[in-house]
Amino acid sequence: MGLLSHDWIVLLVTLFGTLFLIGELLVNMRGLFGVLGLGFITVYFYSFLTPDMFALMMFVYILGLTLIIIDGKVVNDGTLATIGATAMVIAVGFSAPNWVSGLYAVIGVLIGGASSLMFLKVFKRREMWTKIALVDQLSSEMGYNSMKESYSQLVDRSGKALTDMRPVGTIQIDEEEYSAISNGQWIYKGDSIRVVSVDGTRILVKKTSAPIEK
Which end of the chain is more exposed for a tag (fewer CB within 10 A), N or C? Predict the structure, then answer.
């Protein structure tokens, strides 16, 4: 196992591997972070596993990463991303030679995933994450004044959730559909909602107790 016989080295390898791989998804680094991350993760699995198990666990880990990508590009509700992150944790945890190394490996993945968010403060964000975060505000210079004005009229209006909101989803108000974000609550499909505030095209809603026919 060489250097990976030290548990703290295991933590660093999985940390940097996940840090760079998730970082590659978040920011546009033209594959550099992806190559670095894949290198670290390959070293981790190769150090502990037979060729057959190496291929299996690499598949599970990359599958988890793929689910995160699909969530960011298509689904945008966090479900597949959560499943993907779980798969990555399971892959590194079960590949370790003992439970201590496995614990360090899992901690490394969790810290690496969380730390990758710091890249957003330094590098250009990938476009696929702007939708899930609802950070693209349509400006007057782009000719969206009428849309912003119509959105502002939604404040205090009531409607229902057309999809689960965790926290992003689709709502319906007077037969019109809008993308919205909840105020920290998990709102389920069919729940009644009220628009709390509108910031540009960012519609913030909260769940209400009034029954809505599903």
Answer: C
Report yes or no: 40 and 34 within 8 Å, Cβ to Cβ: no
Distance of CA 16 to the CA centre of its chain: 18
**Which structure tokens are listed for 28?**
């546009």
Residue carrying structure tokens 């349509």: 138
More confident residue, 76 or 87: 87
Question: DSSP code of 116?
Answer: G
Q: Which amino acid is at 61?
A: Y
Higher pLDDT, 34 or 132: 34
CA distance 115 to 72: 18
User: Which residue do the tokens 């988890």 mark?
Assistant: 64
The three state secondary structure string of 167-201 is CEEEEEECCEEEEEEECCCCECCCCEEEEEEEECC
The answer on pLDDT for 148 being more than 70 is: no
Q: Alpha-carbon distance 118 to 97, whole Å?
A: 31
pTM: 0.57
